[in-house]
Amino acid sequence: MSGHLIDLYGWSGALASFVLWLLSLPFELLNWIALQTGAQKPGPLVGFIDWLAGPDLTALVALIVAITIVLLWATAFHLLIIMWIERKMYSRLQDRRGIMIGLGSVEILRNTIGRIPILGAPFRRPSHLGTGFLQTVADGVKLFQKEVITPEKADKWMFHTAPVIIAASTLLLFVAIPWSDGFWLMGSIENGRPVNPLGILFILAAFSIAPLGILIAGWASNNKYTLIGGMRAAAQLMSYEIPMLLCIIALVVFAGTLDPFELVRKQTAPFSLGPVQISFLPNWYVFNPFLWIAFVVVFVTVIAEAERIPFDIPEAEAELVEGWTTEYSGMRFGIVFGFKWLRALAGAALISILFLGGWSGPVFATFMVPNMAAAGQMYPVPILPQEFWFTLRIYLIFVVFVWIGWSVPRVRIDQILNIGWKRLVPLSLLSILLAALARGAWWS
Amino acid sequence: MVDGELVAFVILSAIEVASAIMVVTAKKLVHNVFWLAMTLITIGGIYLLFRAELIALIQIIVYAGAVPVLFLFGIMLTRRKIMEEPHESE
Amino acid sequence: MAEMWINMGPQHPMTHGLWNLRIKVDGETIVDAEPEIGYLHRGYEKIMEVREFQKNVVLTDRLCYVSSITWSHCYCLACEELMDIEAPPRGQYLRVITNELQRIASHLMWLAAYGPDLGLLTALLWALRERELFLDLLQLITGARMNQNFPRIGGVRNDMPSDFGKYCRKIIAHFRKKLEEHEALFEQSKIFQMRTIGVGKISRQEAVDFGVTGPNLRATGANLDLRKLDPYDAYPDLNFEPIVAYEGDSYARYKVRMEEMKLSCDLIEQALDRIPDGPYRVKPPRRAEGEAFRRTEDSRGEALFYVIGDGDDRPYRVKIRSPVFSNIFAAPIMMRGNKLADVVAIMGSIDVCVGEMDK
What we know:
The structure holds three protein chains of three kinds. In chain A, 61% of the residues lie in helices and 6% in strands.
């Protein structure tokens, strides 16, 4: 069992108190000047300084810093990486190399850092031999530069509200998704352990808001393609939420908790299912035969929730141009398009927490680092922390998404709904039954 | 010191009442549905103030996520001329 | 939901060119469809009247940019009929080889376009990868990858290089293996079967009524292959059976084209085995009088050139019968009652080439 690297609230608290201390310095100086010029002893600004560097404001700023860190971690870091993974991965599936723009493509870097003898080597590489990571950044920059065009006959107010709904509901997902025992935003600490009794339910609730935003986006654009795309998206997302919820109910019936931390803790132990004990296998729910169906159904529904091929019928660029995102341009398009990847990322995290042991993983060695939150103390940090294992799982699940997505055609909308209602819903009911049977036999 | 919960309650209920009025007064179908969703989500927020987290989340899953979209579907599948509505407002 | 007309085109990812398909949908179900063509009309038949017989080959090459040689070949055959000459045997065999290479390249282009239509972008890259090999072969024999300007009235422009047969056999053997991968990607995929089987059905009678030809007609069970039915060039010497499927749906059309690629490989190998030595071209007369027509089995169906000469060195009138022009108007029959997403599954399987359709 490995420990965590990032202690989110500890770090953000330390950062917040440092920032507030810096902010209070000029007032300290003013206070000192006031004292020198004959003010009474504590000085006129002491109350303000106490408030500024006091615990209330520090806690508030720490919370804001923590939220910012989580959102940047998800959107700026992981979003770019999974986009890069997807583009490189499907390029390899298609027998080509894909995006290749690297640091060497930036002329300024090539002419400055590239001239340094050894350290500048990555910047000297020709642009067609790079890793391509800069391409995702370049695409983002390009989208920022583009004009935001609002169709003249569009319902402007709704047209601009829809991306906000979609972005907000997607970012809400990352509020509840913990990245390790220490890197979490939503929860509390009880008995030295993080708990978040309704975390999974919160994630599902955040997932369920998006269809509304998509439907509004499709309608407000006043375009037939977007209208049909929006209707399709809403129908698909609604009908795939139900088997997803049912299968998670099956898991909850089996595991007895909706707490992501508790779910991961349960999966860290060696495998045990009633009389069967296997010491070398972790107790991941994916290995549990009573939950296999639930795992498959959740996997399929997550692909559908993220609107990925084969379930990307709302986008369906062959017949609907770009689906419900057709009329969006500039960064509005970037938001509605990029956040589909974020939903896939959140879905992969959800699968990982529910079935694949979350962030548990072996720890090989630790090293001691000073504690930022409490000066003078040292604490052990594993060389492969929980964040690493969790990220690794998410990326591997995402690679499977990409692998599936780029080797099958797209399913038709009525077939999607058939699969959803006639196959997945009965299967998920079956998995609830199985989980209840296993639970009844006290095998959980 | 102002009671934070009271402030939150007042803001939430103000949004809720305003959007409930908008539900019945807005002219366009999708606007109605949007305001309905706003009403239901703010009700979820008020449940949160009552420390009823589970019912708040259920409220958002069922009422905010599913019911407005179902309404919209039901109406869109029966009514004619959905696309023309934005034109009339111009 | 209300019934509404949706324009798919003139600029739309589905069209693969410049034309417009107007679709009337009731919710997701197609009620009616109307192809609107003519966006790419270049007045071919008129231009050809002011150019000399031989120089028109440059134009006919550009009728369909993915199937140049088959079109020029048809024109040359019609002119030969008009001038009452015949290409020497080696020229005929060279025509068969290039024709079939072009047919494979054209079918691969269709396959490459069909994948993204169904959301399978990987197929595009894979099929273009294989098409590259056949373009290389065509380049080896004609010197160009596109618009080869290779067939001539009275034969072909040049002989093939001495080591052409070696490369050709090697690439065909490689392609046969690769084609299995394509089949694994397409027809062994359950989703592809769901998308195409039973979609876009057209009966044999309706297809004949609308003048559908080529793979689209053979997919309805009609054994109509002009290479067999109305043989030309060296085709009578070669052993082959036309590919026929009976369902008449998108899957059958797909299957016919896939099998045709294998058939073309066989034909090329047979032609390479039997190709005689000798001249590859005879000198045609400069002027011609009378009228003649010739139909050939183009990659997309029955191509027909009707040429009238009035004793001048230019044709008096040329009439082109494009297979796609007829096929595309059978599309509404195939579409009615299907879902909106099936439009691409149907139009992709018809294999539209706007260049030859709008002439």
